[in-house]
């Protein structure tokens, strides 16, 4: 019975297709219009007004004047100096000073030097006659470091950084006073 009902249904759909010619005509006209709209563009001549890939006469040009270099990094190694500031002005460090950094070299007096095969030591006194030992590499003052100790002198190199990023080095010499000199 299922086979018989299936054939009856197939016959009904065939009858419906044959009885609805208006639907068939509308579909046929739609397909024809669709093909007539596409085929002339596929096989027709190239018309520059209809070509989407054609170049136009007013092409875009990049204007460099007044613009930054797009390949230059935004951050530079040298700090920009704000307007009104001297680029050679020395920047003061905000680090906390400890030990011998509390004394500037001019506040100390060289009173003795000890040079052995392994160490070079220098003894300095402050205004209160309190003694301190210095070795090569000891920080002294705000920006100074002991760089060299000889039998009669101590060399201190002060390095200052300016606003423009330059390093300014100054060498300060402390000399040992001979007996009888002040």
From TrEMBL:
InterPro entries: PilP. It comes from the Bacteria. It holds the Pfam family PilP. Gene3D superfamilies: 2.30.30.830. This is Pilus assembly protein PilP. It comes from Desulfobulbus propionicus (strain ATCC 33891 / DSM 2032 / VKM B-1956 / 1pr3).
């Amino acid at each position: 019975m299922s086979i018989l009902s299936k054939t009856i249904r197939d016959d009904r759909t065939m009858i419906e297709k044959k009885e609805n010619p208006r639907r068939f005509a509308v579909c046929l006209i739609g397909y024809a219009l669709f093909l007539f709209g596409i085929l002339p563009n596929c096989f027709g001549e190239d018309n520059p007004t209809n070509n989407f890939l054609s170049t136009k006469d007013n092409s875009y040009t990049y204007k460099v004047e007044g613009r930054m270099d797009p390949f230059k990094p935004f951050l530079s190694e040298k700090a920009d100096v704000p307007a009104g500031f001297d680029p050679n002005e020395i920047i003061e460090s905000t680090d906390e000073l400890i030990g011998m950094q509390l004394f500037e070299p001019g506040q100390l007096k060289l009173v003795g030097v000890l040079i052995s095969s392994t160490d070079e030591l220098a003894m300095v006194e402050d205004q209160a006659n309190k003694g301190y030992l210095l070795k090569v590499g000891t920080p002294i003052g705000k920006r100074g470091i002991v760089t060299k100790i000889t039998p009669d002198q101590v060399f201190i190199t002060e390095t200052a950084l300016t606003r423009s990023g330059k390093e300014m080095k100054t060498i300060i010499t402390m000399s040992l006073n001979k007996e009888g000199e002040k």
